[in-house]
Amino acid sequence: MRGFLLNRLSQSLILLLIVSVIGFLVLNLLPGGPLAQFGLDPGMTQDDLERLKEQLGLNRPLLIQYLDWAWRLLQGDWGHSFRDGAPVLAVIGRHVLATLLLMGTSTAIAIAIGTWIGIRGATHRYSLFDHVATVGAMVALSIPTFWFGLVGIYIFSLQLGWLPAGNMYTIGDGSVLNYLHHLILPSIVLSLVHVAIWSRYMRTAMLDAISQDFVNTARAKGLSERRVIMKHVVGNALLPMITLAGVQLPSILTGALVTETVFTWPGMGRLFLDSLGYSDYPVVMGLLMFSAILVILGNLIADIAVAIVDPRIRLG
Amino acid sequence: MTALVANAGPSRWWRSRTVRRFTSHHLALLGVAMITLLTLACVFGPHLLPYDSLYIDLRARFSPPLTGDHYLGTDPLGRDVAARLFMAGRTSLLVAFFAMLLSTLIGTLVGVIAGYRGGWIGAALMRTVDGFLSFPSIFLLLALAAALKPSPAMVTVIVAVTSWMEVARIVEAEVRSLREREFVLAGRMLGLSGAHIMFREVLPNAVGPIIVAATLTVAHAILLEAYISFLGYGIQPPLPSWGNMLEGAQQYLDSAPWLAIIPGAAITMAVTSFNFIGDGLRDALDVRDDRV
Amino acid sequence: MTERSDTKSNYSRRDALRLMAIGGAAGLIAPNLLGKPAFAQNPPASPTGRVVVGLSQEPTVFNPLMPHIEADEAVHFSVFDALVRMDPKGVLQPNLVVEVPSQKNGGISEDGLVWRIRLRDDVRWHDGKPFTAEDVKFTLELITNPKFRAWRTAGHSLVRDIKVVSPTELTWRMEEAFAPYQSFLAETFMVPKHILEKEADPNAAAFNQAPVGTGAFKWAQRVAGDHIELVANADYAGEGPYLERLVFKYIPDMTVLYTQFKSGDIDLVDQAFITADHYAEASQLSDRVVKLEPGASVESIYLNLEKPQFKDPAVRQALYAAIDRKAILEALYYGVHKPTETFMPQNSYYYNPNLPAQEFNLERAGQILDEAGWVPGADGIRVKDGVRLSFANSTTSGNHLREQTQQFLQQTFAEIGVEMTISNLPAAVMWGDFWLKSQFESAISGVTNVIAGDPDVSNRLHTKAIVAKGGKGSNTGQYSNPEVDALLEKGARTFDREQRRAIYLRVQEIVRQDLPFLPLFAYTNVFGRKQGLEGFEANSNTRVASWHAAGWYWKD
Description:
heterotrimer, A: MetI-like fold, 2 domains, C: alpha+beta
């Protein structure tokens, strides 16, 4: 176990290194930079821009800038936002809850509905339900999320006027009901893809489990089909699903990006786009590292969870 | 050598079974039919319509669908949406197709080398794949789009550069499992070069998964192009693409909803087709794939 | 409920109002800063109610001296005070000073070098500490402190020997006479010495996240990515505030911003206002006051004059004549914006209304090019001395209305044998070195040329402001005319309003003739607010609508 963790740790550090180097290079090779937003400012002179560049340390060689950033990060200093001067972790922290709320809700929807569809599809293989679910999932995966969001807004906000077109809550009304009202449309839009993925994986995992020997053994023991399915098959099928859940963890950031943009949700996805737009390097780098750490954690959790549930797998 | 060929080379029964399986896959056939229809419409449609996709007529702006000869209405500059939709289809499908070729090429190359060589080269390559995968793809897309001048060729490259990792992973896994098979070991004993074994002996055995992944990559590439063009960083006007037709449509969602609905429907149709075909191919080629 | 206010008539109406207010005429609503006439009966006795202001950019910078964007100023104007304020007429009014320093009242010496500032004695910071001349000295010195990440330093860098004479009086010397500094002070908000002097690093001070000012509203809280809430400062020294709470809500999408105004979630639309395409619908809304207000920016096609295509004045004239401005303005911009011939805002005191009007005439455009020797080549594109009349046009990608304008222009230009390609870039790329260092061929940009209402445009039009040629400024089109240079230098040294006016009217004449850029239109902003929100006034000398929230109140 210790060997496994050490190995994982070293691999993770290498991954973080790669992500940070690529991210830093790509960001800095972009023309423009953090001062471009003042390019149209009526009174900003070239002198001012040069001075700010120096004050922000942007005129140093790229390697030095990177090493400086990395060294501080190792000491726990994520830097300060170029925009509001607040510590990067605080900036990210301010947006985490909104994203968690949205992602949590949609993931809950996706797991509940996806698991159900997957089980039913596998137990009623090639039934009408299975076919519709298969086709539905593939169509769902084919719809551009932002477009689906737009159509949702068009129908439910603009035409029917049932749901708000955006925002997390109405100012001055912080009630739970108000939050829920605002959550409905974005979380459904966001869960569409996840329901599709989840149901397909669940179905495959179920079919794999059904075909295995122990199921036949269970059947041979005279257990009822329902009992066999619920106890042996579903239990075994959920194993790979834990892996999936782990692997899906990083999508907390990426998955919400599009949806948060369309629904003006004040979460990390929009923070990312805004920061990229203003070339707020420290915040963008912070979010990239945050996302990479989620990837690592997700994979780790997935592996450990599987190992705990399934004693046949030994970590090493 | 004969043993090798028998094992590695495709033979007739394998092929015909594949065809049979594919043709009995209704969704795949539906996908082929839809995409053929769409392609034909994009190729011949613009010649059959009375309007040029670039012709601006401010007097006819925002005509709703079925106004006169404007079957799908007009856009904010009074251009015919139908003509633009088909011209856009050409751009979007071509970009997606070439992005698929390019990303499959990169992915296959990386996958084969990493899988066959293994060791630190393999590890380094696969960690790079992981690194790329742990970026929000939109970051790489936007960053590259900002750095490179957006032309159709550049958009193709950008889409390819952000979608080769899946192929690389699939190929690497496949090749790694093939590496220790008898025919490869036999090849080594016969003194064949690494490159020869990799590309002549191992790769043909991984063709199935590659084809499936490539088909799904087309679907993915259409979505990516749409997304970067939607954000304004992709294909530049006046050249239409499905994505840039959607750009700005949000603004007119209330007054001219067809501007958003029509290109989105075309994208969904094309992507669905490729996903159906990919699914059919996966069954037909007997590929086990973790992806949906 | 639409009041469509024409620029000129509005000007004279305001003029009349002002005169009457000064004359003590009762029963009229006067601009807020001009004392408290009769209308002071209307606002509530104690601050009541709440106003939610919608912004399409997120305010994130709360230290007003640090680099910021327009949206941030909505907060700055409410939380802080400056020494002076620029009123909607472009006249400086006292804010923290007792009277606006001028050469007439002795606040500025005859040679323009010595300034004497007298402050109000009844102003307190939000934490109760008195505001004194020490704070002013600290603020001005902080701006030029090399360790501090200050916003712009133009003007401030000329200030020397700041002397505090008494808690309510200070003097300084200017390195050279610089008239625009009067206006710059209107955008220089005062920060508290007693809080910031203790900070080792003013760039990372806690103050920057929870500002303390002297303004009408106090900082309450911020929900990042969503909104900022301010509460009334009951001890405010000036007029107001009449509202108990002021909320700035960030809505990144212009359509959603409008939708929320329509639905009533937002009481007032600030930066970047209601989009032109929603104007017609907005003006029909019940219980909403939707008004067209002239803005300060001018949308133009900037030509990089160092490119061989644009060196020939005939090309510039021909292109200008080939722009169907009427079609662009009426169809693409829904008739909201106004055509203009100059860079000066139309309701500025320095605006020149007597410039020759552009006329759309493709035939004439072709003729000009023919006469200048630009003849069509094999591909139909005109050529002269080996130079093809072909150029790229760039702007921010994703700006739909501009992209539509570009495509429309592309079609008309093609008709006179001119090829224009479109090459748009993301904002961060477009307005970086590409724009500042004149790497573009031609660009469409909406530029505010005046700073804080001051007509000095040296930064945009002086030869020394060409960065690509080693200058310091934003003359990105690389315009260079010795006569204009001389006039601009004179204007910056002249304090008298009338004399300055003559200078800048002449500058506009020359620039109209030279056509270094092709003006498309002067921005008119569509302001929208709920019926019953009173005391609101637009001010094109500021960049935000919320420049004077202290005077707002709900009519019951």
